[in-house]
UniProtKB/TrEMBL annotation:
<protein>
    <submittedName>
        <fullName>TINCR ubiquitin domain containing</fullName>
    </submittedName>
</protein>
<dbReference type="Pfam" id="PF00240">
    <property type="entry name" value="ubiquitin"/>
</dbReference>
<feature type="domain" description="Ubiquitin-like">
    <location>
        <begin position="14"/>
        <end position="86"/>
    </location>
</feature>
<dbReference type="InterPro" id="IPR029071">
    <property type="entry name" value="Ubiquitin-like_domsf"/>
</dbReference>
<dbReference type="InterPro" id="IPR000626">
    <property type="entry name" value="Ubiquitin-like_dom"/>
</dbReference>
C-alpha cells in the first residue's frame, strides 16, 4: 500500500498562484510537489515573466532556491509572493 501511495504521488499536481507584486498580477501555475523554486522560475520564464532578481515568499518566509514545494508545505491553492530584491 505504501508503494502504491508513493507511486501515485508522482502524478499529483498542485494548482497554485504566484502574486507578482511589482506588476500587481496573479499568475496561475500547475506544479508538482517535488518541484523546486528554480523550477517555478523556469515555469514563469516560459510564461514570459522574468523572475531572476526576485525572491519567493510563502507565509512570510523566504523560500530557498533548492527547496521543494513539499518541503515548504505549499499545497493546492496556495499563493506565493514574488518580490524584487532591492
Amino acid at each position: 500500500m505504501d508503494t502504491l501511495r508513493r507511486s501515485l504521488s508522482r502524478w499529483k499536481r498542485y494548482h497554485i498562484k504566484v502574486h507578482l507584486a511589482d506588476e500587481d498580477l496573479m499568475m496561475p501555475l500547475t506544479v508538482k510537489p517535488r518541484d523546486t523554486v528554480m523550477d517555478l522560475r523556469a515555469y514563469l520564464v516560459r510564461e514570459g515573466v522574468t523572475s531572476w532578481k526576485k525572491t519567493f515568499y510563502y507565509n512570510s518566509r523566504q523560500l530557498e532556491e533548492h527547496e521543494t514545494l513539499k518541503e515548504a508545505n505549499i499545497q493546492n491553492g496556495s499563493v506565493l509572493l514574488l518580490v524584487s530584491n532591492k
